[in-house]
Design goal:
This protein is about 70% helix and about 5% strand. The protein has 13 helices and 2 strands, in the order H-E-E-H-H-H-H-H-H-H-H-H-H-H-H. It has helices spanning about 20-55, 80-85, 90-120, 130-140, 145-155, 160-165, 180-205, 210-215, 220-235, 235-250, 255-260, 275-280, 285-315, and strands at about 60-65, 70-75. It has a two-stranded antiparallel sheet. The mean pLDDT is about 85.
Amino acid sequence: MSTQTASPPTPAPVRVVGGPSRRHRRRTALNAAGFLVPFGLLFTAMMLAPIGYAIYQSFYTVDRQGLFGGAQTTRFAGFSNFSDALHDGDFIASLTRVASLGVIQVPVMLGLALALALLLDSRSARFKKTFRLTFFLPYALPGAIAAVMWSFLLVKDLSPFTGPLSAIGIHTDFLSPGWIPVSIGNMITWGWTGYNMLIIYSALQAVPGEVIEAATLDNCTGWRLAWYVKIPMVRPALVLTTVFSIIGTAQLYTEPAVLAAARIPGASNKFSPIMNTTLTASQADQHLAAAESVLLALVTLLLSFGLLKFTQRRTADA
């Protein structure tokens, strides 16, 4: 004797009554456009237009006749400006100098920012608001003023660090040519550690409390909690601060420019790529300067997106 189970009846299609009308959708689109158009205009005028103009200028050159300039003719030069920029020893040296500085300074700065953020996020931390404000204050100080302040603090005869170091047998001049990159890296680290700390600390505040509680119940506390739970949870913030730091290092200008203006040995007006490009433009070779700017932007873009793709692939593999 076999039994058969009756199949359930097929539900009738549900008709949505009273959905948004065409006029309502059009009004919503117009409202969205009203908010986006001002941003689009500002973004085009302040970002896309200068980039496009720099790219356009990089493909032209000026031919001058006569000893004092005489007649000038602008002609299409193709990629010759880019070739000249790649064969410019000062420009390549500035790229190498800033890259070497960033390889050491960026990890040190982000390591300090992560350590401070973890300390502020710990349960035993006291006076969190006071310490958070104290760590952030150097970022609020204008870069030029901070560079002037540090230039006085690092002068050999005035520096408060020279005496204690001399007492233990270390005699050095922080503004000598060999120490200038270290001094500039110190200025950048001092000014931007608090900014990166706030980004990481905000990410730590977003970590679900039940995750921390579960890890604590599993006897994961102290540095083990930070290493195995908190740091992996704030990895996107670490990637973001690393990208910001790469872009900021490529744009290095204020600190070496202040030291160069003070005529400190070792701080030349060609220390960073932007300083070198600015000097080239001031020497009436704006087309070569535009090519150097485009090359610098491409290098920064490749490094930033390369890091993002690398981290995304590592996250996907994990």
